[in-house]
Every structure is written in structure tokens, then in C-alpha cells.
């Protein structure tokens, strides 16, 4: 705001958060039934954007079978004690970017 006493003008500053990109993509994993599997992605920056993991088309959430971790720019998914039903495509999406394994 600029105020001269009898006149005043005001302006605002707005910032747009730059979109995060995936700089380390998912890698395929082969394991044995009953073991835990870890998938990791690294982003270009820490982000408040919604990041989401999927098994096929099903969105995953942290529970007793899936653990989702975020440590800075590193996003991890741990599938506990996998079974044959867990075989398939794992994908990670953030903004307009995605990676699959």
C-alpha cells in the first residue's frame, strides 16, 4: 500500500507453487509370496499437492497391508506380505505426472 495522505493505492503479491515432477521413477520388483515389497519415487521438490499410489486402478491408502511414507521429496509404498493377488501395475501420480512399475 502506498498512502500519500489524501491518496492511497494497494497491490498484492501472489505466488503459484511450481508443479513437482518425478525425478526418480518407479522400478519393477520381483519377489516371493509372503515378502514385503518397497516402491519408491523421488520428486523434484517437496509438495503439498496430492500424491497418490495405485494398484491397477485402485487407489491405495496406509493400512495394515500398505504403508505409505513421505520423507522430504521421497515417496515410498510398502506392500506387506504380498500374495498373487497383488501382482500387477503399481503407479504413483502427482499433479499431471505419473510413473508405473
From TrEMBL:
Xref: InterPro entries: Ig-like_dom (IPR007110), Ig-like_dom_sf (IPR036179), Ig-like_fold (IPR013783), Ig_I-set (IPR013098), Obscurin/Obscurin-like_Reg (IPR052385)
Protein name: OBSCN protein
Residue stretches making up the Ig-like domain: 18-101
Organism: Oriolus oriolus (Eurasian golden oriole)
Localization, UniProt: Cytoplasm
GO cellular component term, pick one: cytoplasm
Primary location: cytoplasm
Keywords carried by this UniProt record: Cytoplasm, Disulfide bond, Phosphoprotein
Amino acid at each position: 500500500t502506498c498512502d500519500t495522505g489524501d491518496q492511497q493505492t494497494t497491490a498484492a503479491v501472489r505466488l503459484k507453487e511450481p508443479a513437482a515432477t518425478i525425478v526418480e521413477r518407479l522400478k519393477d520388483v520381483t519377489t516371493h509370496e509372503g515378502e514385503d515389497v518397497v516402491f519408491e519415487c523421488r520428486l523434484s521438490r517437496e509438495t503439498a499437492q496430492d500424491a497418490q499410489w495405485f494398484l491397477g486402478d485402485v487407489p491405495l491408502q496406509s493400512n495394515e497391508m500398505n504403508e505409505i511414507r513421505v520423507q522430504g521429496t521421497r515417496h515410498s509404498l510398502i506392500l506387506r506380505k504380498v500374495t498373487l493377488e497383488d501382482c500387477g501395475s503399481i503407479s504413483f501420480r502427482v499433479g499431471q505426472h505419473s510413473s508405473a512399475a
